[in-house]
# Entry
Amino acid sequence: MALLAHGIGGIKDLPVPLWLFYYGAALVLLLSFVALWVLWKRPVLEARSRGRPLPARLQDVVASPALHAVLGALSFALLVVVTAAGVLGDTSSNENLAPTFVYVVFWLGLVPVVVLFGNVWRALNPWRAAADGVAWLWERTAGRWDVPYAYPSGLGRWPGAVLLFAFAALELAYSEPADPRSLAVAIVVYSTITWLGMLAFGREAWTANGEAFSVYFGLLARIAPFGWRDGQLVARWPFTGLTRLDVRPGTLAFVAVMLGSVAFDGLSRTEQWVDFRANLMRPVIERSPQLADILGTLLSVAGLAFVVLIVAAAYLAAVRAAAAVTGYPGSLRDAFLASLVPIALAYVVAHYFSLVVLQSQFIAPLASDPFGKSWDLFGTADVRPDLGILTPNIVWYVQVSALVVGHVAGLALAHDKAVELFESPRQAAASQYAMLALMVVYTIAGLWLLSSG
# Structure
């Protein structure tokens, strides 16, 4: 199998020309904007986010400390197994559990879970589970542990953004991202940083700000039709949890990394980037292949950072234009930031849908033989995945649909916030001209990246 091949081939024999998809997607956004302007005169999403409490018995089960302890223990045990597989298992990424588990099951597979059911990562987080276990033992043997440092409010989500960028760089810029040994080192380094952060600033503070995956899955979980409000588990309209997004320092950077990393993944597969990279590195490869690997990694990290900055700059330009058009006295930077989260989800679905469907099938044989030692622990070592389950056109339609739906959801969130901020419907609509342009740019760019890869 070709591990981590993002997709199943090029787009072929589409029933309509590619340019028509571009115009169609832009037209859908334009019509959505007009419909929102005509029909949506007052904010409604915040009220819908309050939701309806679920049965008390179900809430007791979901919030049960015993259930969280069991799930956390299992998750930590799985972390140990995956790390051990990376250290001791077969060096081939095709035969080792670690690469497929980390990049497919964990990184991508948990996305639909949190989007459908809410922030289940809080109960599954192995680093938090280990820290909770140590804290429990400490309190019963040595007494109360006082956190030595208060988390700086100005730091916000910046540590999480930096660590998420580092993970994206490992996956997209490093020359051998699926190498089990390298992946094991990355897990150990990330675990050490996470536990030191929890030790210094407390489990809650570091999980909410510095633990990149908690921040990531927490943002996506706000899209889910289930969530917690005032200590109660509620059923709510999808996407409405984003109306209560607490924008703190580093949130824009974090969301920009979410969007920009996926965009760079698409860019790195285009003919233009491949040619640019090859031309730049050709003289170095001839002199020193080892130096070429280092240069290639640095070039990709620079490209990743550049795309992340472009994503953030485009958003900042749009909100500044909105403030200028409406004469808004303050900054609108935080007001519309939640509208980017559905777009980040759309990019993930569009780029990795086929990868998850195809590559996740290999978990069955890898679970029985995680170290690549010819074991058959669960009797699934001989399971053969069906790699013909998808066609290129099916993938393309899923990609287009995801991008359009995600951007329409982003428009709706931004419009709902606009009618809350501006008393005049005309002013609220005017504030969204730039946001509409931003959504169109993001959509067309996403379609181009998908079709050019």
